[in-house]
Amino acid sequence: HHDAVTHARQHSPQVVAHRGASEDAPEHTLAAYRKAIEDGADALECDVRLTADGHLVCVHDRRVNRTSNGRGAVSALELAELAALDFGSWKNRDEEPDWEHRPEDREATSVLTLERLLELIADAGRRVELAVETKHPTRWAGQVEERLLHLLKRFGLDSPATAQESPVRVMSFSARSLHRMRAASPTLPTVYLMQFVSPRLRDGRLPAGVRIAGPSIRIVRNHPAYVERLKRAGHQVHVWTVNEPEDVDLCVELGIDAIITNRPRAVLHQLGR
Ligand code: G3P
Ligand code: CA
């Protein structure tokens, strides 16, 4: 029986909560990540950006306009200014939200620092992995990576014994950003995100030193043979953002290693977990 369970595990993709349980709760908030952990997600995905005063915060867009009641670029605002904003009220309130919104818990929907997210994970009471995506405005030239390593170090996560054991991985559309991370910490796993397949990499190779490919679900749908090539080249494949049941089936069929989704509970259910 034990072997059967292990076997099933090996062939069931990891379920990664994209921006937290972001279908139910406002993306990149403590509320969304708490919900993802409750839902049983294996890992959490977050985007990180630097504030004007050098803090890493979890925000997807360059500006805060879409996901808060404020305006302006994250990089032009200080953490204290961001902390005065509400990152929850933009989310559709017409429907009954699937998370408990307690207005008295301001922290649940205020700006989330990566530090606070790492604390949440440390307190989860079970293994919860983290896939951090560096958003990388060129003006910061390496500072995002430097701050990220510094913060990971404080949590003892910056230099795992082996990549396989690492609970943290760094993802980016920028090969240069990943290169910087690997140069500083060779055992920290890196994921090369792809929105399209560049002709240079069509044969299934990845930028030097990268072991994990992060194609969009659109690439996977349109070019399943490319996924086979990546796997044959010995790479893991992590796919984003997989919200449709047919796409979950396709990922299982193709032996995808991680499914990044806004709906971790629904995907886990579909996988029989
Ligand atoms: O997980 C990768 C995916 O999040 C990349 O796209 O725009 O959602 O950050 P985006
Ligand atoms: Ca992302």
Could you describe the 3D structure shown?
With 273 residues, this protein is α/β, with parallel strands linked by helices. The chain has a single domain (15-270), classed as Phosphatidylinositol (PI) phosphodiesterase (TIM Barrel), CATH 3.20.20. The chain is 32% helix and 16% strand. It has ten helices and nine strands. It has helices at 2-11, 30-39, 79-83, 114-122, 143-154, 175-184, 217-222, 224-232, 245-253, 264-270, and strands spanning 14-18, 43-50, 56-57, 129-134, 168-172, 190-194, 212-215, 236-239, 258-261. It has an eight-stranded parallel β-barrel, surrounded by five helices. It is globular and about 50 Å long. Mean pLDDT is 93; it is low at 4-9. It binds SN-glycerol-3-phosphate (G3P) and calcium ion. SN-glycerol-3-phosphate (G3P) binds next to strand 2.
Short description, anyone?
The chain has 273 residues and is α/β, with parallel strands linked by helices. It has one domain (15-270): Alpha-Beta Barrel (TIM Barrel), CATH 3.20.20.
What are the SSEs and their pairings?
Elements: H1 2-11, E1 14-18, H2 30-39, E2 43-50, E3 56-57, H3 79-83, H4 114-122, E4 129-134, H5 143-154, E5 168-172, H6 175-184, E6 190-194, E7 212-215, H7 217-222, H8 224-232, E8 236-239, H9 245-253, E9 258-261, H10 264-270
Parallel strand pairs: 1-2, 1-9, 2-4, 4-5, 5-6, 6-7, 7-8, 8-9
Antiparallel strand pairs: 2-3
